Amino acid sequence: MCDQHRTEIVLEPFAADRRGHAGPCKPAEARRAVERAVTERCRATRTRCDADALSDALLVTSELTTNAILHGGGITDFHVDVVGPDVRVSVCDRSDDVPVVAPPVDRRGRRRIGGHGWPIVCRLAHDIRVTDLPSGGKCITAMVPLS
């Protein structure tokens, strides 16, 4: 997973296994939800939103949701909230597989296309948790600093 970051695999149920929750099912919808949450927090606290930090949060959101679609059988739940100086993004999918960093080349020595999403998440988020869901699948929660 992320070697240089605190990453935790949790075997307890995610807050409430909200598989029936109708949330964003496309990366663009999830990005809009994150942008809305961060912007609302900045307005409420009358602070300036750091554009670079927001970009980082949007990139993490894109990577997590795209990975859920491509490798996890689709997004089953999505949640975003601003917690102190961080934005917390949670994306659940149908797969029990823990994300891994793919080698940059295949067995024949050919360069792989893609495979950069999980390393990007690991670089931009300071706390990542992978939680097994009781009814199968997982939820990945990433904390991204907003300053």
UniProtKB/TrEMBL annotation:
<keyword id="KW-0547">Nucleotide-binding</keyword>
<keyword id="KW-0808">Transferase</keyword>
<dbReference type="InterPro" id="IPR050267">
    <property type="entry name" value="Anti-sigma-factor_SerPK"/>
</dbReference>
<keyword id="KW-0067">ATP-binding</keyword>
<keyword id="KW-0418">Kinase</keyword>
<feature type="domain" description="Histidine kinase/HSP90-like ATPase">
    <location>
        <begin position="35"/>
        <end position="142"/>
    </location>
</feature>
<dbReference type="GO" id="GO:0005524">
    <property type="term" value="F:ATP binding"/>
</dbReference>
<dbReference type="InterPro" id="IPR003594">
    <property type="entry name" value="HATPase_dom"/>
</dbReference>
<protein>
    <submittedName>
        <fullName>ATP-binding protein</fullName>
    </submittedName>
</protein>
<keyword id="KW-0723">Serine/threonine-protein kinase</keyword>
<dbReference type="Pfam" id="PF13581">
    <property type="entry name" value="HATPase_c_2"/>
</dbReference>
<dbReference type="InterPro" id="IPR036890">
    <property type="entry name" value="HATPase_C_sf"/>
</dbReference>
